[in-house]
Amino acid sequence: MERERSAEGIYLMSEIKAIENTLEAWSNLPVEGIIICLNYKIVAYSIFSPQTADMATIHFEKFDPDKKGSAQVINWETARYLLGKFTWINREQDVGLDGLRQAKLSYAPDLLVPFYASRLRAQS
Hints:
The chain contains three helices and four strands, in the order αβββαβα. It is globular, with a radius of gyration of 16 Å. It has helices at 9-24, 70-82, 98-106; strands spanning 32-38, 41-52, 55-63, 88-90. The model has no long low-confidence stretch (mean pLDDT 85). It is of the alpha+beta class.
């Protein structure tokens, strides 16, 4: 989980800070999570919460790319845990990374919402 595919710089640092903030505020947030261990080491985890009465959002899902199948197992176990509690799972954005988009499409989603980005500019 130390290496991220091609994510670098400010995006990666922002995500790490968001995960740290979530863990620090865990008891004050409506979040849950799953951790998968192999030989007493974390190889994958997911953090999720209710978005609506019938939809859960997976905010973070990380896995060790050197442990074959860890991505699929954490995805499967998270979905299995949420089964019966929610109708829909929002896997959030894939930031346009081909591997993440391909993985998302492999689960035959009912709906993909387009991702839009914008920047604020200061007026002179």
